[in-house]
Amino acid sequence: MQSSAFQFFTHTEETWTAMLEALCGAKISVDIEHYIFLPDSLGQEFIKIIRERNGAGVKVRLLLDTVGSYALYNSSVPAQLESEGIEIQFFNTVGFWRIPYFATWFFRDHKKMIIIDGKVGFTGGTGINKSMATWRDTDAKIEGPIVGEMLEIFEDMWKAKGDNIFQRIKKIRARTRKRFFITNIPYFRKRFLYYALIKAIKRSTKSIWLTTPYVIPDHKLSRVLRRASRRGVEVKIIVPKIIDVAVVGFASNSSLGELLKAGVRIFKYQPVILHAKTAIIDTEWATFGSFNLDSLSFVYNFEGNVVSTDSKCVGALSAHFAEDLKNCEEVLYKNWVHRPFLEKLKEFFIAPIRGFL
Q1: I need a surface site. Which of 137, 246, 291, 318 has the fewest CB within 10 A?
Q2: End-of-domain residue from the set 154, 173, 192
Q3: Are 182 and 192 in contact (CB under 8 A)?
Q4: Cα radius of gyration rounded to whole Å, the chain
Q5: Residue of 326, 297, 328 whose CA lies nearest to 217
Q6: What's the N-to-C CA distance of the chain in angstroms?
Q7: Which range of residues forms the domain containing residue 120?
Q8: Contacts of 86 (CB under 8 A, 6+ apart)
Q9: In a domain, 179, yes or no
Q10: Count of the separate structural domains present in the chain
């Protein structure tokens, strides 16, 4: 298979600049599937270009998550865009009329994809939300066969219309051939990304380097990480010191003890909020995208990640990891055990809902 080309961005503002520049050059189609698309000043920049391209005859489709993009969903913008011929869908709508289906509200479309003319793609962790302007994230502009796979995933989600989330899951095809853009679908036989990561960790012989905004591993992931560390694999995890969602931060911090005790080394990124989601195994296999190490990504969210053994891709992500380590402070088990009582108390009260974070 022909290889894909990656141009990486490690800060949100440079990602947005590249996205807007590429959107300006769209000639045939623009397909956007995003968890967060807000109608703030940044969102208005995107909307302006989308409208201009639509006016020039470019086919524009927006597939946005209702919860993540609620401010846009609850505004007059969608009706205005539709009146101009732009197609827009909001995934898994919520509201008082859907209270009988409250249990389904947890299922969210957490992917971040922009596909231009079916040839250029963007994916990673960055949303269209101005408040993320100073964050450290990982995104890439991609050209090559992976973009075609991204478009297939978009089409699957776009065609599987309807409010019944379980019917939607059934409609989405389980693509079994070898792929490089892998999804996680909230159905136990379609959690492809989760199992790809577990498999890579089990096969590791030298190193496992993970970067994640939240580390709330389930029993299986925690076990394979601890076993890898005990068989001599270097396991390092970078998490943020400053966390964007405090409740998730307490749940994440409470998860560190058993990993640290097993020899897993954990580092807290100091400068700004860290939102990147990457994994590098033995410096030969890597993944990046929207997938967090928490229950929402494991069980409830529709996620999408690039998985690659391309040396340039893996090398770039490895270099980012090494650079980030320079701006981290290591978490020591003895310090974690003696963390302030108030922190432990908050973690105790968060524990009952840990499986939903």
Answers
A1: 246
A2: 173
A3: yes
A4: 20
A5: 297
A6: 38
A7: 5-173
A8: 50, 51, 54, 60, 61, 62
A9: no
A10: 2
User: Residue 309 carries which side chain, given as an amino acid letter?
Assistant: T
The answer on 208 and 154 residing in a single domain is no
User: Are 122 and 214 within one domain?
Assistant: no
d(CA 75, CA 57): 25
Q: In this structure, which amino acid lies at residue 321?
A: F
CATH number of the domain at 258, please.
3.30.870.10
Q: Residue-wise pLDDT tens for the chain (357 aa)?
A: 456 899 999 999 999 999 999 999 999 999 999 999 999 999 999 999 999 999 999 999 999 999 999 999 999 999 999 999 999 999 888 766 555 555 566 789 999 999 999 999 999 999 999 999 999 999 999 999 999 999 999 998 898 766 566 666 665 655 544 568 988 887 656 788 999 999 999 999 999 999 999 898 999 999 999 999 999 999 999 999 988 766 766 676 777 888 999 999 999 999 999 999 999 999 999 999 999 999 889 988 999 999 999 999 999 999 999 999 999 999 998 887 777 777 776 666 666 556 555
